[in-house]
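Quick note —
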Amino acid sequence: PKNEILIRLDAVEAVAKVAGRKAQTNGSIADKDVIEQVIECSRDENPLMRQVAAFTLGLLPGDDVDQRLKVMISDADTNARTNSAFALARRGATDGVSVMIDVLKTASLKVDVASMPGPSEPEKRNQAVKQQEINGKVLFNTFRAFRELKAKLSDDQRQQALVECERLAKDSEFLRIRMDAGLTVSELKSK
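Predicted structure written out below.
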């Protein structure tokens, strides 16, 4: 079973790579069987599979894909929800904005070393550093998504994003986050 999940993950990641390359030339994967298989993978019990499937679905065309991504913003797994919200944002849809607001609230928090997996303190610190780096990337993707969606945000969505981005621009201990948050504030205010 472990090999099976790895093979399926590799297959979905391969679809993402092909779809990404096609998108660079304004193309897309039109094979309905491939799209349906990725949608099916997005229903898998394994959270990593759902995370990768959500990312991949964001690169595929179709109303069925849009509907599945809208369902996935309520997934039990945080990363699957986040990938779904980013995928919807890339498609110009604001359905995942509440998920992205949550990202602004939580991904900016300092990672608790004690909560990290690992048999030793150095291993836990290493895991915390890796998680902090991932959180930073997620934040940057969130800032970019808000900037790209700025013309489509409702007044309430814009206000919620502004509150969180202004907080991060002022209070984050990381210069890069403060700068990106500040840029996002400026763009959101410019409508």
